[in-house]
Structures are given as structure tokens and as C-alpha cells.
Amino acid sequence: MTNDLTDNLFSLIKSLSPSEKRQFSLYVGRIGVNTDSKFLNLFRVMTKLKKYNEKEILQKTKISKQQLSNVKAHLYKQILISLRLNPAHQSIPVQIREQFDFAYILYRKGLYKQSLKLLDKIKGQALEYEEKNLAYEILELEKIIESQYITRSIENRAESLIQQTEDLSELNLISSKLSNLSLQLYAIFLKMGYARTQEEADSIRNYFYQNLPEYKIKDIGFREKLWLYKAHLWFSFITQDFLACYRYSMKWIDLFNEHKHLVSIHPVSYLKGNHYLLESLFYLNHTNLFEKTLKNLEGMLKESKIPDDDNIKALAFLYLYSNKLNLRFMQGNFANSDDLVEKIQKRIKKYKDRIDEHHIMVFYYKIASLYFGDGNNKKCIEYLNKIINNKSLEMREDLMCFARILSLVAHYEAGLDYHLDRLVKSTYKFLIKMNDLHEVQKEMIRFLRNLPEVSPLEIKDEFKKLHSKLKEFEDHPYERRAFLYLDIISWLESKIQNRPVADVIAEKAAEISR
After folding, report:
1. Is the pTM of the predicted complex or chain greater than 0.90?
2. Lesser CB count within 10 Å: N end or C end of the chain?
3. d(Cα 364, Cα 240) in Å, to the nearest integer?
4. Can you give 247-265 as a three-state secondary structure string?
């Protein structure tokens, strides 16, 4: 077994809950000969290990080095079978798939009527729960059986099966094209973030409409609409049309409200829809509605229709705490952040195998921004360095760029300007390399580069000049994206007014909420 598979086995064992471990022991023990089997002994030893240690495994089991690879492979398979039998994992799609397997076995036994009866039953379930790919497989098996054994149970049986297959095939094709489009747009966003120029926006717009399949909204179902709204949402995010983001995230949630029985089947999509609604409200600066929606999300996570599994727990952390940070930014509430940051750090450590590096880096940027708002610039720089020094991160080029811009400002604020010139030069080179040197960044770098030459008596005038220049870009369709990451305008106003930046942001938030 390769190292990857060894890691997978160890991670799988460590992910098991106490009840899942007990069930596995009962599952294996149902056959007496297994009670002292090599794979069960391997399971017991690996359960107690804090990290994988092959030498210790060989010492504590009767498994030879040559046998170990096969025993690990067998153990991995047996754990998955045991988990499949666990009631906690018996979701509707799993149950339908299991019944489909039973129907296939009945067909192979020549029990055609029994097989067809079971297939007809689960086909209805598959369609009810939007498992249309599985429904298509069921129809294909029905056609195979009908071609061998004419039941004559339904008039025009062949025509009915053919029509059902054609209808499902068309819907599956639309769904496939929409899911491909949604995934590609998401990949583009992860790579570059928001559109930086009119040319980029036009390119995204052309790509979107060229790849959007033809459809009639009245003819498509839940699954197709969900992918449609996801694709529109990502297109709107990339082009910074946050009102459209709000509109499509609401359509996404309303779709689940119309099909409440599908919330427990697709809990991840349901939570994502609520998360993107919060993201939209954050960028639209609707603080009161944002806070109410966040409270609703916390309440939803306690409902029985949301499964309490490891995947949901990791996503719940990601969405709740990311938006808790956003709420603090909207309210200008930067003080006393250490407790919140500590909770986030603990959960990042706990869920590190389930959260991708991109999302962890976004957390670090938000934490850095939180400390910057509180005036703790050294802490801000510490978290920004986690992003800047991450050589393996190849996503969100815009995140990398603005981390460097914020780092420059934080160094200035912390009085660490003795090597500011070197940082300015390296940031300038990085922005050119990333093709991300726009007017806001140019003005910021020009300002910071000249700071050491400015007399203390003239510094406030320089802040006012920069503020005046940047205000021109506040509503610019592409330059404004700089303000999505760092509220430079509020920072400048705080310097001009000799007030903490948190007070300036909080005052603006209060005005908006009135």
C-alpha cells in the first residue's frame, strides 16, 4: 500500500466516533473467526496510535512486513462497509443505491417480476429526491429486463420507458452543462478573485453566456435550477454585481424552501446558499439584515434536518466564523478579538484535514484585518506573513496582492519603517508579476514610498491628498475592488482626524443602519 493509502487508512480510523468504532467491532465479531483476525488486531493497534508508526504496528501484531499492505487494504474496505451499514450514514441516496443493487441481483437470478417491481418503486423515490442520474440507471436496467422478459403488465410499456429515458437524458445533459459552468466559474474566482478590468469582465461575460445551455425554466426541476443559480451567483461575484449575488442566493434558498424534504438530502448546498446570502449582504453593507441572517444560520445548524456529521461540522465552522468576522468589520467592532481568534485557531487545527488551504488563508487575512482595526499591527503582520510566506498557495492572486498592501500599511503604523523601502519595492514587483498594479495600488505604493521623506508637520496634508485621490475610485467598477479587502478610505480618515480607525468604521456603520 502506498504512503497515500496508509495516510488515508489512518485518517479514516481517527475520524471514527466511539459509536462507529463499537459498530465496527460488532460488525467484525458477527463471524467468530474474525475475533482474532489480523485486520481487527491492526485496527485495535492503529486506534491507539497518535501518529502512524509501522515499526510499532509490526511489534504489536502478528502481521509480517510483507503482509501489512494487503491487511491494511482489507481493513480499509471493511471499515467502509461497516460505515455503510451504520444507520447514521443511511441517507436516501444510499438507500436507493442499495435497493438498486438488490434489484440487479434479482435480475441476475432470473426473478424478473420481483426486480421490475423493486425498480419501479425506487425510480419514484429517485425522482422525488432529485437523484436523476440514478433514476436514469434504473430506467436502463428496466429496459434491459423488458427486452428479455415481456411482462405485459402495462400497456405501451416500451413507449413509456423510452419517453422517460429521453426526458431524463435531456435534464441530465442540462444539469451537466450547468454544473460544469458553475465549477469553472468557481475555479476562475479561486484563481484570480474579482474581475480587475473591463476586458476581464467582458471575457467572463462572454464565457458565461456562450456556455449557458438553453432551457425553459418551467421544464427544469430542483437540481437543474440549483446549478443554474450557482452559476449565476459565481458570475455575479466575479463581475462584482453584488445585488445580483443577493438575488440569486435568495433564489437558491427559496428553492430549498419550496422543496423542504431535500434540505436533509443536500445539506451542504443548503448551508452554502445561506453563506452566500451573507456574503452578498456583507458586500452590500446591510448590517442589520446580515446580523439577523447570521442568527438564523446558527439556529438552522441546530435543527434535526441538518445532519450532524463531520463534513457539516467543518462547514458550519467555516461559514459561521467567517461571517462572525465579517459582522465585526461591518460594525467596526475590532476590540477584544483574542478570544474569537483563539476559537478560530483551535477549530482550524481540529478541521485542518477537511478545510482547504485557500479558506485557511482567507481566515488569516480576516484575522490580520481584525488586528489592524484594533491597532495591534504586530499581530496583523504576523498573520499576513502566514499568507505572504506561503509558497504553495496558488489560488486567489488578489488575496496575495492585498495581503502585501495591508502589510505595508501595518509596518508603517507599527513604526517598522526602517525597511519600508525594501518592502515597497518587493510589493511593487509582486503586483507587476501578478498583473494587479491598478490605480489604487499605484497611489498607495507611491504614498508609502515617499513617506520617509515627508516632514511630520506635512504628514496630515499628505494623508488628505491621498484620501482625495482614492475617493475618486470608491465607486469605480473595477478600482473599487481594493476597498473590498481593506477599508483604506476609513484608515486615511482616521489619520486625518486623529481617531482610531475602529471608531471611524463604527460611525459609518451606525449611519448606514439608521
Report:
1. no
2. C
3. 23
4. HHHHHHHHHHHHCHHHCCC
Question: What contacts 267, CB < 8 A, 6 or more positions away?
Answer: 305, 306, 307, 312
Neighbour-count burial of 408, counting CB atoms closer than 10 A to its CB (0-12 exposed, 13-18 middle, 19+ buried): buried
Which residues, in sequence order, are CB contacts of 124 under 8 Å at separation 6+?
none
From first to last of its 514 residues, what are the pLDDT tens digits of the chain? Answer: 445 556 788 888 988 888 888 888 888 877 655 556 888 888 988 888 888 888 888 888 888 888 888 889 999 999 998 888 876 666 888 899 999 999 999 999 989 889 999 999 999 999 999 999 999 999 999 999 888 766 555 567 788 889 999 999 999 999 999 999 999 998 888 777 788 788 888 999 999 999 999 999 999 999 999 999 999 999 999 998 999 999 999 999 999 999 999 998 899 999 999 999 999 999 888 988 999 999 999 988 887 778 778 888 999 999 999 999 999 988 888 888 899 999 999 999 988 888 888 889 889 999 999 998 888 989 999 999 998 888 766 556 667 778 888 888 888 888 776 677 777 778 777 777 766 556 777 777 777 777 767 777 777 888 888 888 888 877 776 666 666 656 788 888 888 888 888 888 888 777 766 5
Using an 8 Å Cβ cutoff, are 7 and 28 in contact? no
Which whole-number Å values give the CA distances from 447 to 110, 418, 431, 465, 474, in the listed order? 82, 16, 16, 10, 18
Give the relative orientation of helices 198-211 and 222-238 as an angle to the nearest 10 degrees.
170
End-to-end CA distance of the chain: 63
Q: How far apart are CA 134 and CA 192, in angstroms?
A: 36
Amino acid of residue 304: S
* Closest by Cα among 185, 187, 193 to 434: 193
The tally of CA atoms less than 13 A away on the side-chain side of residue 249 is 22
Q: How far is CA 67 from the centre of its chain?
A: 39
Work out the angle between the directed axes of helices 501-513 and 357-373 (0-180°, nearest 10): 100
Assign 436 to helix, strand or coil. Answer: coil
Picking from 237, 310, 238, the residue whose alpha carbon sits closest to that of residue 280 is: 237
